[in-house]
Amino acid sequence: MSARPRSGLWSGAWPWVLLSIAAVGIVVVTAVLLSSLSSIQAGGAAPATDQRPAVGRDPPRVSPAQSSNGVTTSVLLQQPIERMPDGAPYVMRVTELEMEPGTKIFEHRQLGVGAHVVARGAIAIENLETGQTLVHRAGEAYFEGLGPLHRAENVGSETNRVLMVDILSASRGFDGTQQFSGRGRHNEGELRSGPYVQVPLGALPAESLMLRVSRLAFGPKAKTPEHTRVGPTMFFVQEGTATVRKEWANSSMTYGTNGYFFEAGNEPFILENKPATPAQFLAVELLPASLGDGATQTPTDGAAAPTR
Question: 66-76+205-299 has which fold?
Fold first, then answer.
């Protein structure tokens, strides 16, 4: 008696068709999972950004860029000063610091308050009292005040360059701006530092003060109206040339790239980029904290004040 042929879904070729479909599905799912895993391992997740505060301070508020008369101003740092150094009167000093990669500056405290701008490379500031570290890179500004014990290191791959504008007691003379915890050598690795500019500051307002760092981008042949400034200002020519014209004194002075110049604030002047190429300057200002985000230039000729 012959076997009766089976009928239904699992008879004949159907089992092989269904098994083939299932196998294809398993391959597709596996491929998708492997692709997702590869994307994650290849950097699909964005690296975390260190948003911790600088030494002893909250992260500074940065204002959007504003333009007027061919000049675009970007505020890099605005920081109230909680405590000034003891021993008025004061000086404003510019120190340039260069550190080879891996160089470390040992534990110390600041003897002044200052706005520091990274012109090249990177510098890490570690607050030893809180354990927090913040890395500042080229184009960024940061504040260092009195108090916190901290240390610094060049964590980049190139020699850094930091422009440090500090407010110090005039009694310091040309002595350093740091008080180290230990004696002897204060750094590991190669570094170069020294004061480039130091000017005495006149009487300062009795109210609370703040530091503001701004980048000024001048278009070709751009210039400001004649104006005075709210507070003493140190300028640095980052690119191009800067011409300071004081018509009341029948004087004009031009400063080249990497040059510094100081304006006390009470003398009217015009700041000008004479060449037909762009120029870029940095301005570090000591201002009344009550000014807030207000402009720091007061026109003397009736023209509208340029922003900041």
Answer: Jelly Rolls (2.60.120)
